[in-house]
Amino acid sequence: MNPIQLIASRYLFSRKHITLISVLTSISIAGITIGTALLIIILSVFNGFFDLIKGMLLSYDPDIRIESAETRLFTPSAEMEELLANTPEIRIFSPYIEGKALLAHRNNTDKVVEVRGIEPATYFQIVDMDEALEDGQKDLSVRENRPGILIGNQLVGQLGIGTGDRVALLSADGIQRSLTQFSGPRFYTFDVRGSFYMREVFEGSVVFVDILAAQRMFNIRNQFSGFDIRLNNIDDADRIKAQLQDQFGDAYTISTWYDLQKPLYDVMNIEKWSAYFILMLIVGVAVLNIVGSLTMIVIQKSRDIGVLISFGYSKKQIRQIFLRQGLLIGLIGCGIGGSLGLAISWLQHKYEIVQLAGAESFIISAYPVVIDPVDVSLVIGGSMLLCLAASWYPARRASNLQPSDVLRYE
After folding, report:
1. How many domains would you assign to the chain?
2. In a shared domain, residues 246 and 383
3. What is the 3-state secondary structure (H, E, C) of 176-211?
4. What pLDDT is attached to residue 15?
5. Which DSSP letter does residue 356 get?
6. Nearest Cα to 406, choosing from 270, 305, 284?
7. Are residues 45 and 73 in the same domain?
């Protein structure tokens, strides 16, 4: 065995009776163990909630969205559509139109809704409407001179609308024209073909109609609000965004799935890393004991250190002895804490041991857990760095001892 490693181990784990030094060392290891385990568990729970919210939002949000940077609507060129079609990372893209309208139902019931005109053949490959559909069918085609409409479950409950009913939509532009031109408002009648449920976080008052019906209602031709894009691999979103931005220029705004819900995702990330730095304080407090225990070892073993220096050990080698002790404490604490944290996280993921309070009104019953190797590396790496930093002062003090001073009265 390396003599430096052997001396460090003997100093740290002496077989003699229990001393204050051994107690401080045990406290340091226990603190690092608890802190490391807690960090891994809590970061894994944050990752679980992040992936849960991300999955919910991505059932409606695209991987990438293209919009005009200057106007609400734009006319896409043939080159743009050809470029999107020939990009191998893009699985499907679909145009859409968005706008506000007044939805009127029988008994003079009305409500302002967000109308989303879509191309069903492509859009329903981006949004899984089969899973979201609660009643009826996802048919927006024209039947008996009336196009179809899909209405959110929340709106159905508020207005008492059922599949097979008829509703009328009046666009905001239509209201403005009726006021400025002194003519009656023009309502567009739709047959309710079905209702959907996409979680309250993004359902709101959205209704889906065919894109051609939306163009007629909003009095526009060959113009879109944007393109929704689904990629073969969502991890390519940032790279494809940069590529499309470079090709289309500043006239268009390219947004990834993260950009579309950036405030929410940012808050979740801030909470996660705030928890990381706060819980690192637990490890920091435990690490302070390393300073005390190693400093006491230096004082207790000053004669041995003087002898080692007399035998030709350099200052660097003396420092390494005490740095190795700090490293050993960190390895033991991080090893036990990391294994414990990973084991508890795996058990929670597998068996859902800890249940959520009020889970009957939520979409999951237990705390979600996703173990991220990067997070585990950051936790263990951060704890090890703190241990090495704490052992630096005792190691430096030991290397500066003078043999003549410590051996003078021996």
Report:
1. 2
2. no
3. HHHHHCCCCCCCEEEEEEEEECCCCCCCCCEEEEEH
4. 53
5. P
6. 305
7. no
In tens, the pLDDT along 15-59 reads: 554 466 777 788 888 989 999 999 999 999 999 999 999 988 888
Burial profile 95-121: b = 16 or more Cβ within 10 angstroms, e = fewer: bbbbbebbbbbeeeeeeebebbbbbbe
**Enclosing domain of residue 111:** 64-259
pTM for the model stands at 0.86
**What pairs with residue 246 in β-bridges?**
none
Residues 6+ apart with CB under 8 A from 92: 122, 125, 126, 229, 230
What is the DSSP code (8-state) at residue 17? Answer: S
pLDDT band at 315 (very low <50, low <70, confident <90, very high): confident
- CA torsion angle 71 77 81 87 (round to 10): -90
> What are 323's strand-pairing partners?
none
Q: Are residues 87 and 227 in the same domain?
A: yes
Mean model confidence pLDDT for the chain: 87
| The residue type at 212 | L
Q: How many whole angstroms separate alpha carbon 109 and alpha carbon 165?
A: 13
Model confidence at 356, pLDDT cuts 50, 70, 90, reads confident
Same domain? 296 vs 254: no
Q: What token pair was written down for 12?
A: 């740290």
CA 235 – CA 217 distance, rounded (Å)? 37
What is the distance between the alpha carbons of residues 140 and 147, in angstroms, rounded to a whole number?
6
pLDDT of residue 17: 46
**Residue at a domain's end among 203, 228, 259:** 259
Using a 10 angstrom Cβ sphere, with 0-12 exposed, 13-18 middle and 19 or more buried, the burial of residue 352 is middle
- Is 47 found in the same domain as 172? no
CB 205 within 8 A of CB 102: no
Quote the Cα angle for 280-5-388, to 5°.
20
Retrieve residue 14's tokens: 């002496």
CA atoms of 155 and 113, how far apart (whole Å): 9
Q: Are residues 118 and 215 in the same domain?
A: yes
Domain boundary, last residue among 204, 234, 259 = 259
Q: Are residues 389 and 270 in the same domain?
A: yes
Residues 72 and 117 in one domain: yes
Structural tokens at position 243: 């590529």
